[in-house]
Records
---
Amino acid sequence: MADNKPLGGKILTKPFLVCLVILAIAGILLIKRLIFGVGSVTNLTDGYPWGIWIAYDVVVGTALACGGYAMALLIYVLNKGEYYPLIRSAILTSVFGYTLAGVSIFFDVGRYWQLHNMFLPWFSQINSILFEVGVCIALYVLVLWIEFTPSFLEKWKTEKYLKIANKFMFIFIAIGILLPTMHQSSLGSLLIIAGQKVSPLWQTNLLPLLFLTTAITMGYSIVVMESILSSLGFRMPLETPILGKLSKIIPRLIVFYLVVRFGELIYRGQLGLALNGDFKGFMFIVENILYLIPVVILFQSKNLTKPRMIFIAAVSMLLAGSVYRFNAFLVGFDPGPGWHYFPSFSETMITLGFISIEIMGYLYLVKKLPVLPVLRHT
Amino acid sequence: MDLKRRDFIKGVACSSLLLAADAPSVFAAEPRKTLSSDALGILYDATLCVGCKACVAACKQNNDMPPDHTTEEKLYDDPIDLSGKTLNIIKLYKHGAGTEKDNETGYSYIKRHCMHCIDPSCISACPVKALTKNPKNGIVEYNKDACVGCRYCQLACPYNIPKFEWLEAFPQIRKCQLCSHLIKKGKISACCDVCPTGASLFGNVNDLLKEAKRRLEMKPGEENVFPVASINSKDTTARPAGKYFQHIYGEKEGGGTQVLFLAGVSHEKLGLPKLSDRADAAVSEGIQHGIYKGMIGPVALLAGLLFTVYKNTKKDDK
Ligand code: SF4
Ligand code: SF4
Ligand code: SF4
């Protein structure tokens, strides 16, 4: 554990300030939303009631925040202790990704002052997939903050509490593996009830399996990407050997996913839709090419020692998972003739604002708290 | 315990398969809801509708809905579709010059509002029971004090019925609730009550179904008697039967609805979605329950996780 150290250094760097400006603009727009309604800043309509706030902030955002979950699976379930140095920063990005998904939901729903109804037993509607997703995500945010507390406790040098925290941590780690398994698959299930409104290229009863598999794969990819970026950004040595090993998992998961995905499309006889020449077909092809890139790169073992290659592979996988989710929720969603949706400027700015807080928070905390592994291989 | 990579992939695959999709339970839908014998609904017969829109006005009045302006002058209540301000609308289907009524190559009216589905997607979707189905009459009602405004009901409804007040600071979902407030007082729905031709007919759904079947058997052009306002009313009108498109929309669509449509034009042309006989709610809940098996799945998984994580963290401590 002594591996992790605060990085120190200036807080108000250039990237931090850029984020601050974006956040200020988003803040003003959010006030507008609270006074004049969701429709005053978004292009959402009764046909497209969910736009990028749900598709990006929640559906893609929490999948991008699956690093903590994916690493926990590897370290605590499969007992691969060697990856332990990577878990703190992975949990930190998960903390931010999930917390901000929660905050963004608050602005997205129309009747936010009643949002707590989800947790009141007499209002809970347990057949609702959104109920499950909402409750799981809320609980997981809590669990993630608990999993992150040792970083604070170490910083404050409170040995006694640190000991207690470490003693019971296994409970939260276990719950912290269960919850994402449930809600990441259910994020896919959300679409099942929309029936024929979702194009057959994406509408399938296997949505939960496909979403879960890609969420885990995205989790490993984000850890790889984030580790390389931090090393470069903070001028630390690259963790190539361990990242290369981690990267080996990625193509295997993708191949499993693609076999299920295409097998199912062929079984239903819908694969032809991909070659229709329309926008949906085009996006389907883009999505799957992005999946193939990491497979091609990472199955060549010589690439596993090249940071540039594993970085490209990880980014491609993250894009693939993100495009898949966008496609399922927005591109493949068609409520009928006459409805169109493309996110508005304000709506997009607000989403960028949330991403900015995430980046700022990450930059701040890795400088102040023992999160990143420092100089492991001498 | 040194797992090999292959075992790892297998492990992930199996656990996710176990959680997400063991085929039989996934594809077996829930035993589903059927039409209650006291269910109330509306039979809309486009061949009787004269497009007077008295029902649109009556609906606004009786449900305290504001006028909806779509022209610049803002002179009339002139909605072009359902919205947060309009729960009921008469739309026009037109082909070409559109001179002959109730004909594919002519024109036809169609009324749109909540279908009061037998197994509604909106209810299955709603996380907080803001939408509920009255156990007796089957009316799908909305409770704003429960609603969180997530709009999942809008995403779920195959008819795009629930509407949201996009420009309100404190918005609600709006949709036809079959005038349940009037029904509680022993009255009938406002739109049917004012309908002068009997095109919108209120009544028990089983009676309405029988009536719809009777109409499909009529000989086009032959004089027949049609009830007005309510299937039980003494008020009737005699007129030549229309040339019906031989289908009762709502009898089977999406598991069936309490609002039924008859028309002289195919329902698809009138903008009604082509749906399978099975409710999406049944598919969705079937999968979810298949995965979770009454929470036994998650609980068992948690127990396994607690054990494994405990074992693996303890070893690390040493
Ligand atoms: S038509 Fe839509 S809103 Fe009405 S009951 Fe059916 S699913 Fe619900
Ligand atoms: S918007 Fe309201 S009524 Fe609709 S699903 Fe959400 S909570 Fe339920
Ligand atoms: S039943 Fe009532 S609320 Fe529904 S359309 Fe008719 S008048 Fe409007």
---
Amino acid sequence: MLRKRSYFKSKGLAYLLVLPQIIITATFFYWPAIRGIVSSFMRSDPFGLKSTFIWFDNYINLFKDPLYLKSIVITLIFSGSVALLSISCGLFLASMANRALRFTALTRTLLIWPYAVAPAISGILWLFLLHPSYGVVAIWLNRVFGLNWNPLLSSRDAMLMVVLASSWKNISYNFVFFLAGLQAIPKSLIEAAAMDGASPFRRFWSITFPLLSPTMFFVTVMTIIFSFFESFGVIHAVTQGGPGGSTNILVYKVYQDGFIGLNLGSSSAQSVVLMLLIVFITILQFKFVERKVQYTG
Amino acid sequence: MSFKRISLILTLVFVFSFIESAFAKPIEIHWWHAMRGSRGEVVQKIVDDFNKSQSDYKVIATYKGEYDEVLNAAIAAVRAGKQPHIIQVFEVGTQTMMMSGMVYPVYKLMDDYGYKIDWSRYLQPVLSYYVNEDNKLMSMPFNSSTPVMYYNVDMFKKAGIGRLSKEKPITWDELGEITEKIAKLGVKGGLVTAWQSWTQIENYSAIHDLPFATKANGYEGLDVQLTINNDKVVNHIARLKKWMDDGNRFFYGGQKYQGPKSEFIAQNAGVYIDSISAIAKLQSSVKDFEWDIAPLPVESWMAEPQNSIIGGASLWVFKGKKKNEYKGVAAFMKYLANTDVQILWHKETGYFPITLDAYEKLKSEGYYEKYPYQEVGIKQLTRRNPTKSSRGIRLGYFVQIRNIINEELELVWNGKKTAKEALDSAVERSNIKLSEFAKTYK
């Protein structure tokens, strides 16, 4: 009978080896998270000299504020649109790139490139395209179609602009995973289907897509999380939450109230709500979406 | 190790420590500021000059980011017990700093270290923003500005409008006629304004002697409420909205100050309201047209308009440092108020000189005859003694309140709310913040 042979004679060494990782996680994740939760129950001055424990007042004030509820809706619309746009475009580009024979390396590099651009920079780039006064595309839209594109005033235009700017970055990220997923699909399956006379669309829908579902699931979860948190830089550079708070997504509100407004209690409460919301959405995804995922191998 | 070697090392250590004490290092004084680009260079020049002028102290000026980032860095530093000696805080952070319990008041610092300063030789409307309830100066004003009206002289000529007076403000009705004429030229819009809360509500209220908030704009207590939903301010905002809808006489250039400024530079607007400190940028970037400055317009019913209020930042000294370091801080503060330093600062940046000595010297040198537009802000600021409504605004969570006002005004501009609805809701939302702030310090 085979005996499990452990390399470590004592448990002590094993613990010692994982200790650095535990310390890092505890210092940079658990400790701040606990501090955040604690301070969400406090009312304190910016310098932290005076703090009073106020139970759930910060949370109650938050949910009494109609604008906060509006901000939740805005966040859901925003991240839903970013997910839809960046996943569909990423998948489309990946399946095209998977078929491309010439200039493969170049095409792929170019497609991955946007991901390397910092969110704030990508925001500025989009501003140069879509700003009503100096945006190249905006001016052209106005001149050719007479379209009055104005994200400085119109909530809809502003939302569209930040969705575009955030998706643009995410498309590359999704593209990488979809491409890897597509290349892992055995060619023989598709060839067999082709010989049976299945159309390209049918081949994609019945073979590629189901085999790609684990990737799809992973990418969806990641994109939702990204759009909740990483889009901060884009919002900050492009609209700063405006006009009239119409692009003020939750994470930007946390920053505005906490770091600029120095209202730490409310800001902490908002981050706790944000954390709970993302946990809830992730659980939902694992519970309902993952059932449809087929893991092979 | 041999005895010889040890004795050699000991000798060297002794010699070096002797040298060290003979050439004692100057005491370091740390100053965190938010002045970037050309302003940052001027700051560095002033600091270098101070360091060269004596050998006891060495001021180290560090750019820590935008105003809010400097304040955040300082708060984190205070919490870690490693605060700098001096920090530059924007005017909206004044209440936060005053209530922080971490401040060594400037008037006390100067008294404690033997600097007899005649505060009456300073520009009063600037000082009055930073005094406590006993009229004692809490922080040293550094960069102060006030909003003025810039206009495109060439565009005015084309529309048949002459130059405006640099002392007597035009009325808002006259500005209405001007913007109408300019809009007819086919430009994108007549008027554009930066920092809308600061220029169109805070300063509008001050100039027309209307309270911005109760308790003398917050100077006399923490249980404060905003009062900006009064008829006069509502009418003003409604009028701007009417100008916007009616022939592009006013347009919104965005929240950030770069937006409106670039609209003016691109000649999309004939009239542009912004801080006097925009001069530096206009001087360097406007090549293809002539611009000039006039005081902010006033209502026709306001026969004797009040002074405008300032923006910008002041220097705060933190508690918890050594006595000999504070001596250096006091010396540096005194140096900053020197006439020559103030003149340099004013000429290079457009910000006000804070002392009357500097202002009078510039006048006697004929500086303002050569650059008359540089004087418009000072004249507007000092045209009358500040009243309770025009000496400044002292509110907690003021940054958030400005954000709220910004948001609500945007809802007026895009037609979702009327001026009255927006200002009512701005007041209501701000009052919640103000009462939270008051509770924090109970």
